[in-house]
Write a structure and sequence with these properties.
With 379 residues, the chain is an alpha/beta fold. The chain contains twelve helices and twelve strands. Strands 2-8-7-6-5-3-4 form a seven-stranded mixed beta sheet, sandwiched between helices. The protein has a three-stranded antiparallel beta sheet with strand order 9-10-12.
Length: 379
Amino acid sequence: MTNTQKIYLDYAATAPLSESMKTYLISILDLWGNPSSLHSAGEPARQLIENTRRTTAEFINADPDDIYFTCGGAASNTLAVQGYDKKHNCTVFYSPTAHKSILACAENCKNAHSLHVDDKGFIDLDDLKKRLDKGCINPFIIIGHASSEIGTIQDINAITDLVHFYHGTVYLDCTGSIPAIPIDTKKTKADMIGFSAHKLGGLKGCGVLYKKESIKLEPLVYGTQERGLIGGTENLTGIASLGKAIEHYDYSAVSSANRDYLYERIINSIADSYLVGASIESQNRLPHNLYMCFKGVEGEALMILLDQSGIQVSTGSACTSGNLTASAALSAIGMDKRDIHSCIRMTFSGKETKEELDYVSENLKKCVETLRYMNQLSS
């Protein structure tokens, strides 16, 4: 590997656009008309949006009338959580390992309570049942399908069945899971689902909210677009990119092989390192997620050293990078406070070569040893 090569292992944050996507986006730039305009200039833009609405509905086995376009995953979360809380008298329960936008929304709800999770990040269903047994008003449960940080996948059917038994409502944030796990709204039975286009290979700035017709929300942005729930002229290129990404998305190509290969190299060569979240063999872990702790090492420093070697990783969710406070997810699972800042996340495309993975393993070992040696000198 040459010094000019880069190995990108942060696909959970975002992915580069494919060449075919770039070509497609250039081809639609002349669709400049406003989709809300009734004249001939607006018609092609409006038609493109409605075609994408149908394509998106087919992708998640939903009705097109239940699909709403937003300006991103966080916007979908906000519309679902704040929109429902403002419209209804409800008791909110949320997962502490969910995306930061959900945690922030929950903090601003009228009556919100954090759920308990175990040391792998799984929601404690017995605890949830005890809370629901107390007879809370209109329970509204907010969870991430999978933690994009630690990779743990929740048992969605068990959660939705339990909540619906108590006549509650479930919002499911699938932004972190949708690159690896297909969504079927009929099988998950969640009342609302949100995700983002760029996790599937589309443009940033476009999100999706699915909601059952029976669910009523207060608008996020007032206006006439998206049936009054999200006002403002639609992001035509973003929505179009979602439609194109969905057309070519191939779940059969999703594999844990590269993650597992690198994990074995790390665990057998770097002392005092361990996996965070569900076990590597578990079906309840995202197949492209590897979240590792290296005791005695500052995660931010390790990330910077690796970047200097052409290896790009993260210390967690892109929405919390640069924030030196303890990760909410790691705190929630009861991780040793001495280890909370000693983690990095590596997420894979599946197209990495064995040579690249070996290079990562070798340099990771060198960087960890360098940082530990420097810490010894300073202590």
